[in-house]
Specification:
515 residues; mainly alpha; two-stranded antiparallel sheet; globular; Lanthionine synthetase C family protein
Length: 515
C-alpha cells in the first residue's frame, strides 16, 4: 500500500552499473566514511546529555558506528590516519556513561533491586534504549581494541553487572504483561537484549588474540554464563512463551491468530521492525539453528507466513488491523520502524539463513512457500525502490540509507550465487551514492537533484544529525557494509558477505557482532 506522497520524492535514480561505476562508487563510499568520521569527531557534545545511556537517541550510539568501522578497517582499506584515531574517539564517546553524571548507568548496576528497576526492568531492557546497550559496546570495545586504558577493569565490572541485571529483567514481566504478550519488541524489550547476547557470543567464539588480558576477559565465567546456549535458549523460550499468550488474546479479539503475537509499548499489535512482530521475528531467525529449531516450524515460520499475508503491494501496515485506528502515525509508511524495510530485512534473513531444501524430493507445500517468500520479497524491494527516498533524509531508522539495506541483502544473495548482474546491487548503490549528498554530509553527487521544483531542499537535516539511528553515524554503518561487499567481490573473496555486519543492532545477515 502506498504511503503519503509528501513523505518521499519520486525516484529517478539509475540502477544500471558497470565496472567503472562500481569503482567510482567504491571511491565515493570510502570518501563518505572518512568525511563522516571527521564530522562526528568535530561535533561531539560535551553537555550532560552525552551521558544519557541510550544508543538509539543519544550521542553514545555513535560509538557503535565507529567500533564497527574499527572491526571492518582492513576490509574497508581505511587510511591509517582514520583507523588510528578510532580507539580514542570510541572511548571518548563512551566515557560520560561511566562518570557520576550518568546516574542511570550506575543505577542499572546497583544490587538494590528497587534502585535498579527504576531504569532497568522488563520492557526497558533492550540494547537500543537501555543501559544494556552502552554496557555491551564497552565490553566489545575492550575485547576488540588492542591495549588497555585507565579504569578499564572498573568499567568492565560495571558493564557486566548491567548485563546481568538486564538479563534478569527480561524475566520480570508482570502477570498482565505476560498474559498479553507485551513488550518484547526490539527497541525496548527482550528481543533487543537477545540481539546483544547473540552478538557477544559470536564475538567471543570468533575472538583471536594473544593479549592475555583480553583472553582472561573473554573467559570470564559470568560473561560466558550470560551468552551460553542455555541463557540464549531461556531468552528465546520467554519470547515464544509470551508470544503464545499474546496470540491467545489476539484470537479472542479477532477470531484468528498466528501462533505467536505481541503488543508494543502502545499496546497495539504493531507489525514493523522497531516495535512490532517483524523485528522480533528478525532477531529470532538469527538465533543459532541448534537453539531455535524447536520453535521454527510450529511458531516462527507460520507467524512469518501470516505476516506475509498482511503485505499489500509490497508494504505492511503499522499495526493490525490495517484499517486502524493507528496510534503514533500513518498506517502505511516506508521505513524501518514501520513498513516495508523491516519486512525486507526479515525476508532477506529468511532467504539467506534458512534456505529451503534443494536436493531430492521437495514437497509441493515447500515449493509454494518458497515461491511466496520470493514473491513477497521482490514486491517489497520494488515498493522500497518506488517510495524509499524519504524526505526525512539520510538516517537509517526513517531515511534513505536505512531503506537501502534490504537491497544489500538481496545483492549479497545474488553475488553469493554467482549473479554479478544484480538489480538490487544497482538499486542499493544508487541510493547510497545519492545519500552522500544529503545533510549533514552534503558531498557533491550527480545521481538526482537534491532540490524540489520550487527550489526548496528535498531532504531535511535530521534533528540529531550525527546520532546512530537518526543521523550520520548510522549511515556510515551502511556505507561501510556496502563498501565491504564491493571490496570482497572485487577481490574474488569466496564469502562475499565476510566482514559485513548488517543493519545496526538488528542484523539481517546473521548476528555477527553486538553492534
Amino acid at each position: 500500500m502506498s504511503t503519503d506522497p509528501l513523505r518521499y520524492i519520486e525516484n529517478n535514480l539509475n540502477p544500471v552499473y558497470d565496472a567503472a561505476i562500481i569503482e567510482s562508487t567504491r571511491q565515493t563510499l570510502a570518501k563518505a566514511i572518512v568525511f563522516s568520521v571527521n564530522e562526528i569527531g568535530k561535533n561531539l557534545d560535551a553537555s550532560d546529555e552525552a551521558a544519557v545511556p541510550s544508543l538509539y537517541i543519544q550521542q553514545v550510539g555513535e560509538s557503535v558506528a565507529l567500533l564497527r568501522l574499527y572491526a571492518q578497517a582492513d576490509r574497508l582499506g581505511l587510511p591509517n590516519s582514520i583507523k588510528d584515531q578510532l580507539p580514542s574517539l570510541i572511548k571518548a564517546i563512551l566515557d560520560p556513561c561511566f562518570t557520576d553524571k550518568c546516574h542511570d548507568f550506575h543505577s542499572a548496576a546497583s544490587d538494590d533491586k528497587e534502585i535498579r528497576r527504576k531504569v532497568l526492568r522488563f520492557a526497558t531492557c533492550g540494547m537500543m534504549t537501555s543501559p544494556v546497550g552502552p554496557a555491551i559496546v564497552e565490553i566489545t570495545r575492550q575485547l576488540l581494541v588492542p591495549g588497555t586504558s585507565d579504569g578499564d577493569d572498573e568499567r568492565f565490572e560495571l558493564s557486566l553487572k548491567v548485563l546481568e541485571h538486564g538479563f534478569a529483567a527480561c524475566f520480570e514481566a508482570s502477570p498482565e504483561q505476560d498474559l498479553q504478550g507485551d513488550m518484547v519488541e526490539l527497541m525496548w524489550g527482550t528481543a533487543g537484549f537477545l540481539y546483544g547476547a547473540i552478538g557477544l557470543r559470536a564475538l567471543l567464539d570468533d575472538l583471536h588474540t594473544d593479549d592475555t588480558g583480553k583472553m582472561w576477559m573473554a573467559r570470564n565465567e559470568r560473561l560466558r554464563e550470560l551468552v551460553c546456549d542455555d541463557s540464549i535458549s531461556k531468552l528465546v523460550t520467554e519470547i515464544i512463551h509470551t508470544g503464545v499468550h499474546g496470540s491467545g488474546r489476539f484470537r479472542e479479539q479477532y477470531g484468528h491468530a498466528p501462533p505467536i503475537m505481541w503488543r508494543d509499548f502502545r499496546k497495539t499489535y504493531a507489525l514493523g521492525g522497531i516495535h512490532g512482530v517483524t523485528g522480533v521475528l528478525l532477531i529470532l531467525l538469527q538465533v543459532p539453528l541448534r537453539i531455535i529449531e524447536p520453535y521454527l516450524n510450529g511458531h516462527i515460520l507460520p507467524t512469518l507466513d501470516w505476516l506475509m499475508d498482511q503485505q499489500s503491494n509490497g508494504n505492511i501496515p503499522r499495526a493490525y488491523p490495517a484499517e486502524g485506528p493507528h496510534i503514533g502515525g500513518p498506517a502505511w509508511q516506508c521505513q524501518f520502524c514501520h513498513g516495508a524495510i523491516g519486512t525486507g530485512l526479515l525476508l532477506g534473513a529468511y532467504k539467506l539463513l534458512l534456505p529451503f531444501p534443494t536436493e531430492g524430493y521437495i514437497p509441493r507445500s515447500i515449493v509454494q512457500k518458497r515461491w511466496n517468500r520470493d514473491k513477497c520479497w521482490n514486491e517489497c524491494l520494488d515498493f522500497i525502490w518506488k517510495e524509499g527516498l524519504l524526505r526525512k533524509g539520510i538516517s537509517i531508522c526513517h531515511g534513505v540509507t536505512g531503506n537501502a539495506v534490504p537491497f544489500l541483502l538481496q545483492a549479497a544473495y545474488d553475488l553469493s550465487n554467482g549473479n554479478t548482474d544484480s538489480l538490487s546491487l544497482g538499486r542499493g548503490l544508487a541510493m547510497l551514492r545519492y545519500a552522500t549528498g544529503m545533510p549533514p554530509l552534503n558531498m557533491d553527487q550527480s545521481e538526482q537533484s537534491l532540490t524540489l521544483p520550487n527550489g526548496e531542499p528535498a531532504f531535511r537535516t535530521p534533528d540529531h544529525p550525527y546520532y546512530l539511528f537518526q543521523g550520520l553515524a548510522g549511515s556510515v554503518c551502511v556505507w561501510a557494509d556496502a563498501l565491504v561487499l564491493l571490496n570482497n567481490a572485487a577481490q574474488g573473496t569466496q564469502d562475499v558477505t565476510g566482514g559485513m555486519i548488517g543493519f545496526p543492532l538488528s542484523g539481517g545477515l546473521g548476528i555477527r557482532l553486538p553492534l
